[in-house]
Design brief:
With 382 residues, the chain is α/β, with parallel strands linked by helices. The protein has two domains: 129 residues, Rossmann fold; 244 residues, Dihydrodipicolinate Reductase, domain 2 (2-Layer Sandwich), CATH 3.30.360.10. The strands form three sheets. Strands 16-15-14-13-7-12-11-8-17 form a nine-stranded mixed sheet. Helix 2 links the parallel strand 2 and strand 3. Helix 1 crosses helix 9. 48% of the residues are buried. The structure holds nicotinamide-adenine-dinucleotide (NAD).
Length: 382
């Protein structure tokens, strides 16, 4: 049977524009789905740049104003791959135009922005999802299955960190292409909304809601030249953040992130300790899940390193043969596959905008606590 076509209009063609384009192109080759995405239009602000991208990735047309793209009748899905300060405006306009929306993380700069986005997509009843792609690393998805099957028993601890080292130089400017993450107006916050948002999303997916947090943040370099104004300006982002959290299920957590951990490029690690078993995972070795089960015979008990590549492990039957691993880009292919399956079955794709709002509320509470020095309750999703 011929597949039904879904026309994608992507906005932004930087890092995520590439990962998503690759995913839309590949998904139909590896997953058996009713729908086939079509790279219909790509939008960027400079015509030469956007045309070059369209040629390279096979987009049928280009736009230089995202509003025109949203107005187009031949676009079904708007994919938001722009910096955080534009997510809300684009998503609300897309929802009002009745488009399905896939939005990059974080959902927004703040919970207040996120609430407006949730109201817009739910009011318009359009399919929506946020690209928290680490949920779809097969080893992480398998961790979720093991927890849901009750194999760990009661959870006591959750531990996550996300470490990088690319902003240590005081000469690095803030703002503009490539450096918008250092500009609080564009990013919303620093490592909290950028890196910890990933850790928080995975954590609430695996371990449930967070009740309260206490945090500390630091901005190590207080002033940087701003690329858009040419002036030296105050830095408004958090360069590092560490926080403690209490989950609703009674477990305790520690989270840490920084862009000042010399030697670490994208070290996202997590560990969960339960009554019977523990799980650990490391993005630098993403195809492995570490597993310790206290119920094993004592003389053989120890940490197992499970190579998550077999057909009965999440997503893997769609790829090669057992033993051959996949990588970072495949997590985006999985997200597209799940989204298209959700569209076919009229089921939401996790995380929806509403689910991603919970991460936003936790980020808000973390930043608030860092300012007041007090334990802060996380706003409830209601
Ligand atoms: N899921 C992940 O793991 C992950 C990883 C990186 C980035 N992100 C998120 O993806 C988003 C984009 O990040 P990135 O690293 O791709 O950034 P980037 O700087 O590489 O690309 C951003 C793109 O948006 C374009 N853009 C900016 N304003 C625009 C506008 N008004 N109209 C049209 N295009 C515009 C830029 O020209 C550029 O092409 C951010 O929200 C970021 O947090 C997610």
């Amino acid at each position: 049977m011929a597949k039904k076509k879904l026309n994608v209009g992507m906005i932004g063609y930087g890092f995520m524009g590439r990962t998503h384009s690759n995913a839309f192109r590949k998904v139909g080759n590896f997953f058996d789905l009713d729908y086939q995405p079509v790279l219909k239009a790509i939008c960027g602000r400079t015509e030469t740049g956007v045309k070059a991208f369209a040629d390279k990735w096979g987009y049928e047309s280009v736009e230089t104003d995202w509003r025109k793209m949203i107005d187009r009748k031949d676009i079904d899905i708007i994919d938001i791959c722009t910096p955080n300060d534009s997510h809300m405006e684009i998503a609300i306009a897309a929802a009002q135009a009745g488009k399905m929306i896939m939005c990059e993380k974080p959902l927004a700069r703040t919970g207040a922005e996120g609430e407006k986005m949730v109201a817009a997509v739910e009011g318009a009843r359009v399919a929506n999802s946020v690209w928290y792609n680490y949920r779809r690393v097969p080893a992480v998805t398998m961790a979720k299955q093991l927890i849901d099957e009750g194999r760990l028993g009661k959870i006591f601890h959750y531990r996550a960190k996300f470490l990088q080292d690319w902003t240590i130089s005081a000469d690095l400017p803030q703002g503009g292409t490539g450096l918008w993450r250092l500009d609080a107006a564009a990013a919303g916050s620093g490592v909290t909304g950028d890196l910890l948002a990933h850790c928080i999303d995975t954590a609430i997916w695996l371990n449930g809601s967070v009740d309260s947090v206490t945090a500390m943040t630091e901005t190590f370099i207080k002033e940087r030249k701003h690329n858009l104004t040419g002036k030296v300006e105050k830095v408004g982002i958090d360069d590092a953040c560490a926080f403690l959290a209490r989950f609703d299920n009674g477990s305790l957590a520690t989270f840490e992130s920084t862009r000042y951990a010399r030697g670490h490029k994208a070290l996202y690690t997590l560990e969960i300790n339960g009554e019977h078993a523990s799980i650990a995972w490391d993005l630098h070795d993403l195809h492995r899940l570490q597993w310790f089960d206290h119920r094993d015979e004592s003389k053989l008990r120890g940490w197992k390193s499970i190579h998550v590549t077999d057909g009965d492990q999440p997503y893997m039957k769609n790829w090669w043969v057992p033993g051959l691993q996949i990588g970072y880009e495949h997590t985006f292919v999985h997200q597209v596959a799940d989204f298209l399956e959700g569209v076919a079955n009229n089921k939401p794709t996790t995380p929806s905008f509403r689910e991603a709002l919970e991460t936003q509320y936790i980020c808000d509470a973390v930043l608030d606590s860092a300012k007041t020095g007090k334990w802060t309750e996380v706003k409830s999703l209601g």
